[in-house]
Amino acid sequence: MNPAYEALLRELRRARRFLIWRSVERTGFLATLGLMALAGLALLAALLLPLHRSEYVALRAGLLLGASAALVFALIRVLRSRAGLSEAALEASRLIDQREDALLTAFELGRGPATSSALETGYSDALTQHAVRAAAERAISLPLGRLRGWRGRSTSLKRLGIVLAVLAAVAALGGSRTITSVKRIADPETAPLAPIQIRVEPGSEEVEGGASVPVRVYVAGTDRKPRFLSKERSGGGGAWRETALEPATDEARPRSGERAYATVIANLKEDLAYQVRASDQVSPVYLISVRDLPRASGFRIRYDYPAYCGIPSEATNAITGDLAAPRGTTARVEVLLNRSVEIASIEYESGAGRLRGDLGERLARFTVPVRSDAKYRIRLIDPRGRKVDLGPYDIKSIPDRPPTVTILSPGPVEDVTRDLTATILAGATDDYGVRKVLLRYRVREEPQRVEMLHQEKDGVRELAVRYTWSLAPMSLLPGEEIEYEVGAQDGNQIDGPQTAWSETRTLRFPSAAEILADVERQQDSSVATLEDAIRNAQGLKEKSEELARDMGRTRELPWEKGQDIQKMLEGQQTMREQIDKVAEKLSQDADKLAQSRALNAELVQKLTELQQLLNQLRDQSILRAMQRVQEALHKMSPQDLERAMQNMKLTQEDVIRNLERTIDLLKQLKMEEKLEAVAERASELARKQLALNDSLARARQPEEMKALAKGEKEIEKLSKDQRAALDSLASELKKMDPESGQQSQEQRDKLQGMAPLFEQSIASLQEAMKQEAKESTQDLEHQLEEMRNAIGKMKEDFVLRKKNDVGRKMDASIQDLLEIADAQEDLLDDEKSNSGQHASTQQGLEETTESAANRISDLSKMTLFITPDVMQAVGRALANQKGAVGRYSMEDMIGGLVASKEATIALNQAAAALLKGRDAMAAAKSSTGFQEAMQMLQGLAGDQQQLNSESLSMMPGAQGQNGQEGRLSPDQAGALERMAAEQEAIRRGLEEAMGKLGQGGGTLGRLGETGEDMKKVVQDLRGGRLDQQTVERQQRILSRLLDAPRSVEKRDYSRRRTSRPGVDVVRSSPGALSAELLKARPSLAALLARGGRDPVSPRYRAVVDQYFQAILEGKAR
C-alpha cells in the first residue's frame, strides 16, 4: 500500500474517534437534562403534595422508568450517528473550508489499485499519488481536536446548569423535608400509610354448616375498590384467595365519607378466616366458625381381591362403612366428610390397633386389610379439636365356600346303553374358582376310585365338563350298578383347597327281562289308549251317520249343523292325537328293546310295524277325511258335506277295524314279550350262578366266601321274581296255549323246589364252609341251567305252534277264496239261467265272500303276513259282486257279467296275495320273515354294487372308452338295455323285501324313495342316457341299501334332537394295566359280562356261556 495513503488513513481514523466522542457527549447532555428535569419534578411533587406510601411507590417507579428511557434513548442515538471514514474525511476537510472536500477526494482516489484507478478516474497514477500525498500532509497539519465540538454545546451546558440550579433551589427551599422526601422516594416503605378506615360487618361469628354469610365492607379515605381475602382455617398456612368487592346494592348503611361494598360467602362448610384490604390498609383477620361437627356423607370402597380369587378389583359407593369381602382382601375406604378435619384414624373395638388415615379436601382415606370378622370406628378431630366417632362398622371376612357341583346328565338312576358308555355332563361353580373336576365311583363291593376329569391352570368361577365314560373295563353283569359322584376342587391357597361332591347317582346295567317288563307296562297303557280311541271312533261314526242323514234332507246348511260338524272334527283330531301318542310309545318301546343286551330283532320289527300302521292310519285315512269335510264346510254345500260325511263314515269304520287289529296284535306281542322276559330271566339266573360258582372256586379266605353270600341272596331274590312271572304266565297261557301254560306251571314248581337249596347255599357261604357250599351251588347251577333250556324250548314251541295255527287258518282262507272264485267262473259260464237267477246266485256268492272277508280280517289280527293288498283285493271283489247283483236285478246281463268277471279277478288276486304270504311265512324262520328280508337286502346291495361298477366303466372318459360323444354304438345301446333290465330286477326285489317287512319297510330307512330313484335310473338307461346325475343316483341307491339293515338296530338313536350350549369337552385316556392284572386269569364273571354285551340271540347264549366256562377249565380246543 502507498505510505502516503496509510498516513491519510491514520489521520482519518483519529478524526472519526473525535466524531464518535462528539455524538456520545451530545446524547449524554440531552439524557442528563431530561433526567434532571424529571427528578426535579418528582422532588417538587414530594415537597408540595401529601404523598403516602403507595404514591411514593408510584413515584419511584416513574423515576426508574425515566432513567431507563434516557439510557435507551442515548444508546439508540449513538448507534444511529454517522461516523465512518468518509464522514471523518469530509468533516476534516471542512476545517479548511466549508466547501472543501480534498481529503475525501484523496481518500476515494487512494482506495483502488493504481492501474484500475487510472482507468476509472481518467487520472494518471502519478497524479493520483501526488494528490494523496498532498492530502496526507494537509491532514497532518489540521487541528483535528476541533472536531469534538458541536453546535449548541454551550447552550446545552447553560440549560443543564439552569436545571441543576433550579433543582438545588428546590432542595434548599424544602430544607429537611427534602432529605425526607428523597429517602421516601428511594425507599417507599419508610413513607407513612394513607389514612384509610375500614369497617367490616359482621366480623367474626359462628354459623350453622351450609349457611350463606353476607359480608358488608365500609371504606373511608379512598375511592379504590377494596379486595376480599379469605382462606379455610383447616388449610393452615395456605395462600389467601383474593377477589374484588363490588359496591353494595342492598340496604347498606354507610357513614359519612364511607363507601359500602358487599359480598356473600355461600354454603359455608368449613371455618373461614377473612380480611379486607383497601389500598395499603388491611383490616384485622376475622373468623367465621361452623358449629357442625365432622360427619360422613358417604363412602367409596375399592376391594383389591387376592390373586387366588381370580376376581378383578371392584369399586363401589356405600352409605355405611361396612366391609364384606373374601379373606385376604384389601379394602381401600374413602370417607366423604361434610368438612375437613385435622386427624382421622380407625380404631378396632377389639383393641387390635389403630390405622392413621390420609387426609384430603373434606375426605379421609384408609387402607383396611380384611383378615377376620371385626368391628371398627372412625375417629375424626376437626381444627378446633372437637372429636367425633363414626360407627361402629362391621368387617365381615367371607370364608371360602365349598364348590357347587351339579350333574345335568345322566339322571339320578339311568340304564347303561349297549355300547357301555355314559356321557356325563356336569357343571361346577365356586367363589374362588374351580381348579379340578373329579369323578368318584364304586363298582360292586370294591373300594371307591377317584379319577380327575379336568384341571384348570387358573381357576374359573364356572366350568362345564362333558366326559364320555367307558364302562367296559368294569365287567358289569346284568342287574349290577355303579354309584358315582362328580366333585370339584377350588383354588383357595390361604385355608387350603376344598372339595365338594354332587349327589350320588346310579348307572344300572339292566337285564333284558327288566327292559321287557318295562315295555310290557308301557303297552298296557297303549292298549288302554287305543281302546279309548275305538270308543271315540264309534261315537264319531254314529255322529257322522246322523249328520249325513240330516244333510240329505236339507238344501241349506244351518249354523247349528255347522257347529256340530266342527265339534265332530275336533273329536276326530283328538282321536288322531291319541293314535299319535300310542305310535310314539311304540317307537320308544322299540328303541328301548333295541338297546337291550340280547337284541330280539323280531320284537323290535313287530313294534315298529305296528307303529307304522298307526302312522299311516293317522296321516292318511283320518287326515284325508278331515280335509274333505273341511273343504265342504268351507263351501257351505250340503251335497258336498253329505258325500264328505259318508266318506268320513267309511274312514271311521276302517279306523275301527285297524285299531282293533292293532290292539289284538299288541296283546299277542305282549305275550311274546312275557315269554322273552321269562327266558331272559332264566338265562340271567343261570349266568349269575355260574359266575358265583367260579368266584367260590377262587376264594381262599373265609371273608371272601362270606362276601359271596350276598350274591347268592340276590340270585334267590331274582328266583322269587321268576316264580311270580312264571305263575302269571301260566295263568295267561292256559286259554291261549294250554300246553305252554302247563310247561310254565311245571317250571314254576321246579323253581319253588330250589328254595331249600338256596337257603342251604347261603348258610354254607355265611359260615365259610367251602365244600358244603360248593356242592349246593353246583347243584343250583345244574338245575338253573336245565330250567333255562326248558324255558327256551317252551318259548320256541309256543312260537312254532302259533305259526302252524296261523298257517292252517291261512290255508283255509285261501281255499275259501279259490272255491268262491270257481263258483264265480261257473256263473260266468252259465248261459241257461236268466238274469234273475244270476242275481240270486251272485248274491249268495257275495254273502259267502263277506264271510270269508270277516275270517281274513280276524286272521289279520294274528299275523302281519296278511298285507293290505289282500284286504284291498277282497274289498274290490265285494264291491264288484254287489254291483253285479244290481246289474242282474235290472236285467243288465252284460253289465252284470262284466262285474262278475271283475269280482273273479279280484278274488284270484286276493287268493294269490294270501298264498304268497302263506308261503313266505312257511319258509321263514320267524313269524314275520324278518331274517329272510335282511338276507334279500344284502343280496340286492351286492347286485347294485356290481351294476354301479359297470355304469362307471361305461362313462365317457373311462378306461377302455374311445372318447366318442353323441350317438351310441349298437354294442353300447345293447349294454344300456341290459343294465336297465338288471336295475328293474333289483327294484322288484326291493319291493318283495319291503312286502315281507309289511307297511313299506319303513324301518329300513327311506326305501320308498330308493324305489323311485331306481325307476328314474331305468328310464335313463332305456333312453340311452348315462351321465353324472345317473351315476350319482345309483350311488345313492347303493348307500341306502347298505344302510337299511343297520337302521333296524337303533342302538344310540333317538327321534328327538337335543340342543345344548357349548361346553368344555374333556376326554380321559385309560390308565396303564397293572402287572397283577396281566398275570391274573380273568374271572368267569368278567368273561360272561364281556360276552353278554354281544348281540347274541337268547337261543345261543347258553352255548356261549358254556364256552367261557370251558376256557377256564382248559377244555376249549
UniProtKB/TrEMBL annotation:
Residues 834-851 have a biased composition (Polar residues). The chain crosses the membrane at residues 27-51, 57-76. Residues 230-253, 829-851 are annotated as: Disordered. Keywords: Coiled coil, Membrane, Transmembrane, Transmembrane helix. Residues 593-620, 656-688 form a coiled coil. This is DUF4175 family protein. It comes from Eiseniibacteriota bacterium. The lineage of its organism: Bacteria, Candidatus Eiseniibacteriota.
